[in-house]
Backbone:
């Protein structure tokens, strides 16, 4: 017998990186929100690597922040070091990465959740959903609490039918030996969802006292203070380094000799693992000519001695892991505190979702995060915030928010998932974005703050600051286009020192800044300085002017893409009624049910002729509608 | 609604005396105007027809004399601005006109695209929509099979190889970006990128060059017959035409005084271009001057220079030798049935190693030798029709040109010192264009390449 435990606008199942963003976003938007999690001490736990950001992912963290999310603020407060990556490359691919203090991250995030208005946090295991007339109406926990709700978001990560594998040891478990969620997975299957089986893995953690760092190379953070969030004003200055060492022929020998003992190499049929995050076994087998592999030693926090051995992800038996770890230079006497393992879990095939992350099967039900077949904390947070926004929007009668591929990496991620699906755990890479040059680290605020503000996640105070910055950028660009620099000794001295050919004719400051070798600061030396503008504004002006030609080209491509996105496909379309479309394309279209012709064109198996025919069919319908 | 301008040959290929190239879209008139010498089409009334010439903006040469119909939106088939260019110079000329238009900003229409636009703009009745869809399907399938048939296995193999080269290069850049700490691969430098793009660019350029050879195979080797009056030029032309079945007969000389005959000489298609000057047995050099005649001759792929065995070498002959100096020619010493007055040693000297054939066209002697010489000229050089990877499809040539432009932009970026991830944008575009040629546009290829090429962890 269940008991009535109350009614909520939005219920979030899970409090990992997707769950916390979903819950906070929904609550901030004004929806009465409940967050249920298996273990209150594990909110926003990082079961794998202790780091956030990096290429593409770091930009996602900035995007989540620009929309009003929490991940960036929490990591800004709790990291042990930060580094800007790809500084020698173009602005589009520079990205920030932070090493996290894991326990502190949990503590800080829990505090945010506990203090968020409209948000109730409770420990509990959800066994099933309440579904009435095909619509999701709430959840029931194992302790028989029945919560009714307008919308439900499942963010259960790798917990659904999770199974930990290490050598021949295998047991049902969530990551890090937490309780596993079995009934919910079975329940989703009963409701008609197609599930798939993925796997991922994690390396051993060793005790810092047992590492001989003198045999490794130091990897310090940047000295320059940096932040993910646009709101952060206080910076952590005392940073902790990571360390670099390598595997060697002995390591490889240990692995090769014991390969058949590895859970993933024992011949059992297993879930699909990610290629971008291979186990050390995979690396040795697939790239057996490589004499060594990098191993990064990453502290898991300031107040813990656990060190994450990045690069040694494995499902070998514990005994072999000892031998393997100790074969590595600097780790000769290392004590493993937790062994590495592989974990298999159920994921929802993401083509069953609308781009809002609502399921097509069951209105009112959303899924977000690793359950949708992604991997990575940042990918989870991105889906979390979007699902929270759209669930709350649905309850509050607001318009849903779908970001397109030119607006954000978040848009690329979700569009890829719901349009193409994925046959391995999906990770964002910069190469997945067609308009990488537009989706930069530096302009996430310019791209998304407006949207965050419109939906009520960005405060007025922050918005005004943003608007002021935007205006300053425009004004400065205009100013530079009006200043003429004439060739004289002083100017050409600056030019020569910068390695540029001296000026022969007068040129606008704006045009001079287009030269790759000249930075804003150099051009600034030749003209009157604008005292009003900050470093960020200078950076923005510099990038926008320098890459103007390429940005313009990208914008033209975007305009063409958006034209097709604007051609909406009516919900009641009957693909069987369209004779010209090829059978395979029909099947794919019926499954994905794209919202626009643009989305349809990205489905594999739908060719340009099918798209043309679809377009005509839709126009025909529109004309018929007008005629009636 | 549509923002680009499309074009295609809208008459059946290889049939009829007149072929029409049609343009539709907002720039239909302005694109034509840029190529057209004649009335200012921008000011032309709708539904009017105008005489003029299509000039190749690259070479400033007259490509074709045409009649151009201007039809302004909305009272047109597509409800966009439409221009129809009537060409009467056979397939060669019409293809050339199409190519010039494609190089001037129009895009080659997809199969059935004019009809599709007509429909989307409400020009076609609702009940016809089904027919339009069928048409697109049918035309697409047909175009696909034709394009596939046209594509030589060697060509698709080569394109695949070039794409793989580019993909590996791009994957290299990507791995530098997505895995900046990965130490197994050095940072892609501007020099490395420049070397790679240059290699691929050269391959594409040579493909385009060979595409020209392919065009020769398809359209014929432009062949001019020159010589003083009464040396036997007309007889030579008649002999070649009679000996070999003419493929296309003459174009009426109403608008211009050029006669073209297509003959197939031992597998070499010759397009015999006979300027009026020659036809009228007048001296081309005398008539239009050495400089100008050299210009005319330059446009020929092969020159047949006829001398009289029965006459001494004259100043005019010498002038002609000078006019064709450096060009591809065969010297034909005709009238061997008559007494020798020609100084053969001197001819030998002047011919600079070009083939010399002696004939008596009246007696039908030496014709075999002449044909052999023509065939040898064609096949002996770089061109070997049996072993030629050539691109003949207009769409393929356009895509190759776009690839070339994208690579050139990449090179420009490299020279400017743009960061590698920016340069890579143009390299990736090249990869995509080449993919369109062989019908492979799946973008997941890069991700697959990334993980098969590199052992990535972090």
Residues:
């Amino acid at each position: 017998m269940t008991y009535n435990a109350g009614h909520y606008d939005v219920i979030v199942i899970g409090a990992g990186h997707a769950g916390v963003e979903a819950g906070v976003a929904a609550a901030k938007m004004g929806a009465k929100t409940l967050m249920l999690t298996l273990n209150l001490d594990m909110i926003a736990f990082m079961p794998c690597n202790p780091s956030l950001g990096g290429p593409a992912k770091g930009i996602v963290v900035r995007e989540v922040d620009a929309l009003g999310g929490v991940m960036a603020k929490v990591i800004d407060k709790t990291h042990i070091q930060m580094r800007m990556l790809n500084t020698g490359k173009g602005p589009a691919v520079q990205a920030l990465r932070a090493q996290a203090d894991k326990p502190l991250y949990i503590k800080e995030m829990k505090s945010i959740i506990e203090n968020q208005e409209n948000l109730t946090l409770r420990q509990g295991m959800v066994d099933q959903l309440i579904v009435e007339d095909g619509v999701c109406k709430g959840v029931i926990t194992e302790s028989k609490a029945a919560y009714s709700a307008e919308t439900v978001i499942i963010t259960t990560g790798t917990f659904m039918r999770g199974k930990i594998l290490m050598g021949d040891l295998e047991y049902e478990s969530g990551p890090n030996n937490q309780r596993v969620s079995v009934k919910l997975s079975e329940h989703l299957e009963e409701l008609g969802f197609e599930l798939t089986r993925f796997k991922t893995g994690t390396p051993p953690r060793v005790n810092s006292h047992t590492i001989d760092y003198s045999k490794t190379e130091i990897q310090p953070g940047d000295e320059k203070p940096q932040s993910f969030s646009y709101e952060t004003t206080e910076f952590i200055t005392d940073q902790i380094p990571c360390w670099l060492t390598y595997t060697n022929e002995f390591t490889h020998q240990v692995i090769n000799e014991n390969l058949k003992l590895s859970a993933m190499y024992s011949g059992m049929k297993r879930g699909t693992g990610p290629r971008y995050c291979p186990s050390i076994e995979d690396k040795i087998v697939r790239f057996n000519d490589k004499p060594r592999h990098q191993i990064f030693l990453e502290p898991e926090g300031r107040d813990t001695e656990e060190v994450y051995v990045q690069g040694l992800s494995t499902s070998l038996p514990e005994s072999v892991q000892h031998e393997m770890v100790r074969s590595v230079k600097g780790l000769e006497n290392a004590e493993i505190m937790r062994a590495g393992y592989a974990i298999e879990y159920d994921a929802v095939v993401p083509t069953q979702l609308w781009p809002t992350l609502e399921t097509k099967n069951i209105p009112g039900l959303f899924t977000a995060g690793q359950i949708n077949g992604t991997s990575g904390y940042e990918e989870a947070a991105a889906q979390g915030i979007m699902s929270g926004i759209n669930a709350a929007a649905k309850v509050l009668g607001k318009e849903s928010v779908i970001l397109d591929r030119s607006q954000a990496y978040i848009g690329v991620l979700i569009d890829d998932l719901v349009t193409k699906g994925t046959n391995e755990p999906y990770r964002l890479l910069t190469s997945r974005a067609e308009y990488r040059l537009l989706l930069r680290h530096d302009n996430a605020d310019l791209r998304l703050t407006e949207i965050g503000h419109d939906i009520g996640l960005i405060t007025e105070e922050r918005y005004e600051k943003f608007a002021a910055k935007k205006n300053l950028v425009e004004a400065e660009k205009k100013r530079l286009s009006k200043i003429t620099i004439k060739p004289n000794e002083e100017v050409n001295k600056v030019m020569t020192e910068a390695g540029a050919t001296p000026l022969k004719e007068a040129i606008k400051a704006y045009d001079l800044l287009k030269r790759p070798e000249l930075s804003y600061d150099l051009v600034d030396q030749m003209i009157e300085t604008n005292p009003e503008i900050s470093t960020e504004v200078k950076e923005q002006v510099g990038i926008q002017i320098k890459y103007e030609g390429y940005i313009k080209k990208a914008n033209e491509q975007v305009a063409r893409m958006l034209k097709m996105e604007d051609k909406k496909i009516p919900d009641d379309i009957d693909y069987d009624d369209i004779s010209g479309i090829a059978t395979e394309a029909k099947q794919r279209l019926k499954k994905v049910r794209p919202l626009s012709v643009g989305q349809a064109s990205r489905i594999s198996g739908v060719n340009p002729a099918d798209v043309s025919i679809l377009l005509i069919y839709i126009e025909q319908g529109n004309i018929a509608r007008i005629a009636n | 609604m549509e923002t680009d301008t499309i074009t295609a040959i809208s008459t059946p290929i290889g049939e009829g005396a007149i072929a029409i190239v049609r343009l539709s879209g907002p720039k239909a008139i302005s694109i034509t105007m840029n190529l057209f010498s004649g009335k200012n089409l921008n000011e032309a009334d709708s539904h009017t027809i105008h005489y003029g010439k299509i000039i190749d903006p690259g070479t400033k040469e007259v490509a074709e004399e045409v009649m151009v119909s201007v039809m302004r939106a909305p009272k047109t088939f597509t409800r966009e601005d439409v221009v129809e260019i009537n060409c009467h110079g056979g397939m060669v000329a019409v293809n050339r006109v199409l190519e010039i238009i494609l190089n001037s900003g129009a895009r080659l229409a997809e199969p059935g695209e004019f009809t599709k636009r007509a429909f989307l703009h409400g020009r076609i009745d609702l009940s016809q929509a089904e027919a339009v869809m069928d048409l697109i399907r049918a035309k697409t399938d047909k175009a696909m099979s034709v394009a596939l048939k046209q594509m030589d296995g060697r060509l698709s193999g080569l394109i695949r190889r070039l794409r793989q080269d580019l993909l590996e290069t791009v994957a290299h850049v990507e791995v530098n970006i997505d895995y900046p700490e990965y130490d197994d691969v050095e940072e892609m430098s501007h020099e490395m990128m420049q070397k790679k793009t240059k290699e691929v660019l050269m391959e594409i350029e040579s493909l385009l060059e060979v595409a020209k050879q392919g065009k020769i195979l398809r359209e014929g080797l432009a062949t001019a017959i020159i010589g003083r009056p009464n040396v036997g030029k007309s007889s030579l032309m008649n002999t070649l035409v009679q000996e070999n079945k003419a493929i296309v007969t003459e174009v009426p000389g109403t608008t211009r005084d050029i006669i073209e005959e297509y003959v197939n000489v031992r597998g070499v298609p010759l397009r015999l271009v006979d300027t009026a000057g020659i036809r009228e047995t007048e001296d081309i050099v005398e008539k239009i001057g050495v400089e100008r005649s050299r210009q005319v001759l330059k446009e020929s792929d092969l020159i047949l220079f006829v001398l009289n065995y029965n006459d001494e070498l004259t100043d005019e002959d010498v002038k002609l030798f000078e006019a064709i100096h450096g060009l591809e020619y065969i010297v034909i010493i005709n009238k061997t049935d008559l007494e020798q007055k020609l100084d053969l040693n001197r001819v030998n000297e002047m011919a600079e190693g070009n083939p010399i054939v002696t004939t008596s066209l009246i007696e039908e002697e030496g014709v075999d030798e002449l044909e052999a010489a023509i065939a040898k000229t064609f096949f002996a050089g770089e061109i070997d029709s049996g072993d030629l990877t050539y691109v003949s499809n207009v769409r393929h040539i356009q895509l190759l040109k776009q690839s070339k432009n994208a690579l050139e932009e990449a090179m420009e970026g490299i020279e400017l010192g743009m960061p590698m991830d920016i340069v890579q944008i143009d390299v990736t575009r090249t990869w995509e264009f080449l993919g369109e040629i062989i019908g492979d546009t799946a973008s997941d290829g890069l991700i697959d390449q990334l993980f098969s090429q590199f052992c990535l962890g972090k």
Notes: Chain A has a mean pLDDT of 94. The first strand of chain A starts at residue 3 and ends at 13. Chain A touches chain B through 56 residues (CB under 8 Å). The domain at 460-554 of chain A is CATH 1.10.10.1800 (Arc Repressor Mutant, subunit A).
